[in-house]
Predict the structure.
Amino acid sequence: SQQGEEDPQALSIQEGENATMNCSYKTSINNLQWYRQNSGRGLVHLILIRSNEREKHSGRLRVTLDTSKKSSSLLITASRAADTASYFCATDGSGGGADGLTFGKGTHLIIQP
Amino acid sequence: NAGVTQTPKFQVLKTGQSMTLQCAQDMNHEYMSWYRQDPGMGLRLIHYSVGAGITDQGEVPNGYNVSRSTTEDFPLRLLSAAPSQTSVYFCASSYHYGLTEAFFGQGTRLTVV
């Protein structure tokens, strides 16, 4: 079953604007990851935030994590046309099992030139 | 460094046929997994392996078999293809399950007619 759910499902903004995507999950986690998928390609890892971290930055990306609300957000600043892609959050369970990452359904981001 | 290599990229099967999707990684990762991606469903885990000789079922294992005879290779076998197995299949590997980033192959687009 889906652990993470991204919101919104689709987002269209103008180039140069900031894009914010949200992810909610259901159970306790060790960490939360964000991935990008360009059309017809595999997923590419963007950033990993551990459950004891509240915020993390990588270039134009800013990720926050609120474990009390079981939610995370991904902010892309100064968007570019090349940021057009689908973005997925992925969680691993903290139950100790090795059953990998559980992905949400993704946010499809379109950057209008 | 090739990363994760999947073959073939595209495949059309007739109902009832069998085939093997190949996955190889050259990063010496212990953890490998197979996902399927369907429209509106995100990625769902089929099978995973925490090391050579060890495999286990994920969320949607029915109709698929895996084996892990070497660290590098993790093939996925469709025993008797069904139209419901039409999907895009992704292989992924990581140094440690859930705690580190996953590297994805480019995917295999499978159509069962």
Residues 58 and 105 of chain B are 18 Å apart (CA to CA). Chain B has no helices and eleven strands.
